[in-house]
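Notebook, student rotation project (T.W.).
Task set for the rotation: take a protein with a known small-molecule partner, predict the structure of the complex, and write up what can be learned from the model alone. Partner molecule chosen: coenzyme A. Sequence and SMILES entered below by T.W., checked by me.
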Amino acid sequence: MKKTTIIRRLDYSFTSEMVSEISGLIKQISPSVPDLDKRTLERCLTPPSVVISATDNNKVVGIIMAVVYWSLSGLKARIEDFSVSAEYRRQGIGESMLYELLKTLYAKGTKEVSLSCNPTRHAATILYKKAGFRKPHTNIYYRKTEKNNDIKT
Ligand SMILES: CC(C)(COP(=O)(O)OP(=O)(O)OC[C@H]1O[C@@H](n2cnc3c(N)ncnc32)[C@H](O)[C@@H]1OP(=O)(O)O)[C@@H](O)C(=O)NCCC(=O)NCCS
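Predicted structure of the complex:
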């Protein structure tokens, strides 16, 4: 990792340049998602959720976030939107951001963190395993929420 790269928790003092840099990072993983806007980023920063950024000379070159939420069984976290800019990969930035995030989650009292990752994401799969993530013996279900006409009430 370059000496100029800074890994830190993102706060509300972000600039509009940072919003478009983060938007570009997200589009590197999901090209069809809408552009990120200020309001959405502010929502993502709402505690207890955590966003970690990597910056090089004030330019955002990596991002990861965990949605942290209360359930009746305790405080849980789910990792979303993990991306390092293509020209900055393989320099230890992703791993440093992931560990910074895990450290922050532990400090908050989150005992468990989950994520989903497409198996074609080779680099991420290796990194998650290296960081101690394991496949759970449980089924994951998914449903879109916009078509609710068929729900029996
Ligand atoms: C996954 C990703 C964030 C990793 O970021 P990175 O900064 O390149 O990762 P690091 O340099 O910190 O690598 C840490 C470890 O991960 C593994 N790794 C990372 N990239 C790898 C690759 N291309 N091939 C094999 N192993 C890799 C290695 O074990 C590496 O440790 P090492 O360098 O000591 O061997 C980055 O590749 C990325 O943005 N990918 C596209 C988006 C994505 O897949 N996001 C995850 C969505 S679930």
